[in-house]
Amino acid sequence: MAITQERSYQALTVETVRSVVEQLQYFEDVEQLEVLEIGDGNLNYVFHLQDPSTSKSLVVKQALPYAKVVGESWPLTLDRAKIEYQSLQKASEVVPELVPVVFHHDSELAYTVMEDLSSYEILRAGWITGNQYPEVGKHIGTYTAQTLFHTSDFFLHPFTKKALVKDFLNPELCKITEDLVFTDPFFDHDTNEISDEIRPFVLQFWQDEELKREAAKLKLQFLTEAEALLHGDLHSGSIFVSAKSTKVIDPEFAFVGPIGFDLGQFLANILLNYLSQEAHIEKQRDLQAFRKYLLETWHQTWETFSNQFLELIRSKGHFTFSSIGGVGEEYIGKVWRDTLGFAGCEVIRRTIGLAQVADLNSIEDAPVQVDLKQKALTVGAALIKDRAKFEDLSAFLTWVEESLS
Description:
This protein is an alpha+beta fold.
């Protein structure tokens, strides 16, 4: 049933959000709904609506015309809400089980009504407390393989692919990534968040010209390589999990870019958690077991992604050269190197840039936090500069165990 709204934008509140779900006829009486504003992200409002008599519930997410993390001094387009909605719809065509159900979207008020995932846990929070989710690697591997292949030139007709690029132009949010991931952390920029204790190390870090040259190459790839429709912000805070189920949320940064970027973001968050567990898990045996689980998660992610992507090239690919031996394999090799480089940029950004991660910032022992952040910066730099030296998954996992433990 179509919903009509006023045509001028206004921010929703706990008092007014009931009206946007009333005409969905999902609830018997919207006046009885319990409403909470639950958003803890950087850009949006998120409301939880529940009928206490039936326990039926929904979530309403509304984009703000500015970055919530900064305030009205940082204006943002409301078009990102439409981008997010369209991206979720695209993903639901190939992996409906791995994204939330969307019930309605309103482009004028920039909100989306979707499935309530309150019974799930945010992956970042779960990992920080040492929870293991045995299926998440396979699920993220499947999500990336299916969404990226089906929006790539291996599958789409050239006309369709170019139309996709046009439909998902997302310049304002791409500019955020271009600055916060690929530029600001490599220079003394005012968006960075650097404590006095770690600043001497960072000042030396900024003197690495080789690192900056390699980061520049990765930024140029992000700017120019329109390979597939990315999620664009695939970190552990954008993934909801349970013991057997995974839901990928928040693709408002979606655009057509380099395939390795999504995978690199996920890998970076695995590595950041891997490092941080030194402070979160006291017993050495438990620490080793959880770190082993994290590496197994990345092993499952990459193996699932690469195997599925290659099989899709063989079985569904329309690219003329797909049948030529080695074409798919060489492309996956490129994605592997890109993944490591992009992961390095994300590790560095989440350590000293804007919007850092609780994995490290929740560590109360200041000297320990500083030491682990220095390790994170060293790891990020190695991934960027030496990404071509890690020939395969096995070599990379061995390096992680030897360098980060």
